[in-house]
Recover the amino acids of this structure.
């Protein structure tokens, strides 16, 4: 686990998109961040107080979290100066960058000298077991998509937030870098070795109270040929009691695969449910989450109503219109 | 690729089972082996000429292949003495052992000094790409099973052998340690990082002549919750034109999962085919391979006939009764 609270490093982020990790922390776990650290040239903000490293420490920050993508995939000298200074002051550092903190000599050395921990969250830090398939206690919900990047993480976070609001027992279980940085822990599933994928998901979602819900972050899609194996491991390792189908209606083709089309929601429902029942015969499809970010409100509401009428499942855009109906459905199980 | 031919190292193998890698090479690629090397205490043979390291070299051997499992997972001092001597004499060494050659200081050092290559075939040696899903030329056949270890590798090898006998263009494409050692190359799929599994299978089975068949070694099962993700990556990365369903009728439960049952062959057929059609809409199920090793000949023939009548697909135990009918079906596609 990454020590909280964080100071969010925005560096020289040129725009909001490049700071989406920091924005995710601000949106979903505001209590995890005491403020933001911006360098000269930073062109965006996530709306937290600007702090120096010293002010962050005084506000209680334990970890400096890289909340921004690095330009050109290089950790610049200007960044390094700040990161080394932070380590000298007693911060840990957490990063989901492709190039690893530990591969930078100066950063590695400073961490060693000052007894600080470097969290490269793209790399598994645990030797995960092979999945044993044994039934676990507690409830699990998994978001599965017609495509990659259709809003599975946001769907899980929205449902978790609504359950928490209702006083239900609920935990969001990240399986990707952004989710891990937002919550402070999880499994970087796409970096796990093939044989241990399902075991990593079992590890992530252990036995729990009978009325506790794990919301497992989905990855890939059963219908995305590049990543479907990761999705399958989530379905079998996760043993979900409930699936939420996720869809983004405006895609012209599968992400990154110009000759592949998204499946119908009905097709996804049937395939994902039949595979989920292998690990948990009681699994049901509980609802549908539509990512309507590229649709007008009228179009979004009409599309959602159409899906709900067609499929007979509670349907919404939980980020835009709230997750209440999805949580109602899960609560009723 | 591992340099052939091999001298097969049987070490102090106590019995035939522990020497199954050497036996597989002898059975399937006899031209790849000039002889066998046995140490004191070896209790088995694969029926090749016994040779010293020197005799192996004189017979043309380029690589000493560890054809035996090591007891207790330890590379013993007695083994090391032989392996270091082989490196000094100019052999490469190839191994599928869990503990790696490269992790043994003496072996690593001798390889370096003598310019020899150590092939630890459990570990990928290539940075595989992310799958792009682009249609490739040539034909591909994938064996999928109701369970792990039901004979998928032997099915592929039998079909490849029969096609070769008929003068058809055919290549067996290994995805596991034993297959890699048998043929000299392949992808250790269960050790590949999740995001690159399907890409590794694309890499393994590139564009080929229109009338060439790749026989992709299957792994795991869509219905085995520990490894189903690996199977899914094979189905989507492999883009098979044909599936062969593999089944072992005498299992009491899924391998290693006492509370899980094998699916019906019809269930496997429907699920595997619908997933395969995502990557290749023209894919068909071409036949059924029954592993009858634990059945009498009468029982085996009756079982096979029953499956064939029920499913309307050419059905056989290709290892026991020949692969002709499966190859007939593939040839007719």
């Amino acid at each position: 686990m990454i020590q909280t609270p964080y100071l969010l490093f925005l560096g020289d982020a040129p725009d909001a998109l490049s700071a989406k990790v920091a924005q995710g922390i601000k949106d979903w776990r505001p209590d995890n961040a005491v403020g933001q650290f911006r360098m000269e040239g930073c062109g965006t903000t996530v709306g937290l107080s600007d702090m120096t490293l010293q002010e962050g420490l005084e506000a209680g920050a334990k970890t400096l979290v890289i909340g921004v993508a690095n330009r050109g995939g290089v950790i610049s000298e200007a960044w390094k100066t700040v990161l080394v200074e932070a380590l000298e002051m007693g911060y840990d550092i957490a990063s989901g960058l492709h190039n690893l903190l530990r591969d930078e000599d100066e950063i590695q050395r400073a961490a060693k000298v000052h007894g600080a921990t470097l969290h490269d969250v793209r790399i598994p830090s645990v030797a995960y077991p092979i999945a044993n398939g044994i039934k676990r206690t507690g409830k699990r919900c998994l978001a599965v998509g017609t495509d990659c990047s259709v809003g599975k993480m946001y769907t899980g976070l929205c449902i978790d937030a609504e359950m928490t609001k209702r006083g239900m027992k609920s935990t969001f279980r990240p399986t990707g870098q952004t989710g891990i940085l937002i919550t402070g822990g999880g499994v970087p599933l796409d970096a796990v070795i093939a044989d241990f994928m399902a075991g990593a998901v079992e590890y992530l979602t252990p036995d729990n109270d009978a009325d506790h819900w794990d919301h497992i972050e989905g990855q890939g899609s059963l219908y995305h040929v590049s990543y479907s194996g990761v999705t399958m491991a989530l379905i079998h390792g996760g043993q979900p009691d409930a699936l939420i189908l996720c869809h983004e209606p405006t895609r012209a083709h599968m992400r990154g695969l110009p000759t592949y089309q998204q499946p119908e929601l009905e097709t996804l429902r049937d395939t994902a449910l039949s595979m989920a029942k292998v690990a948990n015969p009681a699994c049901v499809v509980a609802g549908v989450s539509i990512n309507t970010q590229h649709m007008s409100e009228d179009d979004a509401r009409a599309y959602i109503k159409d899906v709900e009428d067609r499929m007979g499942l509670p349907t919404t855009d939980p980020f835009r219109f709230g997750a209440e109906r999805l949580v109602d459905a899960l609560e009723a199980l």
